[in-house]
């Protein structure tokens, strides 16, 4: 039996974080959570090599999502190498460009996305389908 793919969800709004965690687990993945950038980096370093996808909000207190993205992509030895899907409501072209230039795999706008769309996007990066 294959090990479940692990997704770290980084979201500072608790209701959204809980909702994404439930969705991800219902779709057959294992979910880790972090409510800010500091927790995200700590969780990644403690689970080195075990996180398959980072689902990352950009607007967070403390260390924002772009700083987290920059940190992990410039220090894969400490944080691991995984696909990073940005999940935010920021639609600025410059932020989108910066996200991709820093190494994001995908950029999703929360208000444009339903749960099926999120699961479909996650499946693109894990090589095995999760189902709702």
From TrEMBL:
> 4-aspartylphosphate-modified residues are where?
57
Superkingdom as given in the UniProt entry: Bacteria
Looking at the UniProt record for this protein, which Gene Ontology cellular component terms does it annotate, in alphabetical order? cytosol; protein-DNA complex
Keyword vocabulary terms for this entry: DNA-binding, Phosphoprotein, Transcription, Transcription regulation, Two-component regulatory system
Query: Is Cell membrane set as a keyword in this record?
Result: no
Molecular function terms, GO-annotated? phosphorelay response regulator activity; transcription cis-regulatory region binding
Q: Which Pfam families does UniProt cross-reference here? A: Response_reg (PF00072)
State the Gene Ontology BP annotations.
regulation of DNA-templated transcription
Can the keyword Transcription regulation be found in this entry's annotation?
Answer: yes
- Every Response regulatory domain range: 6-125
Q: Which PANTHER family match?
A: REGULATOR OF RPOS (PTHR48111), TWO-COMPONENT RESPONSE REGULATOR ORR33 (PTHR48111:SF1)
Indicate what this protein is called per its UniProt record: Response regulator
Organism from which the protein derives? Candidatus Dojkabacteria bacterium
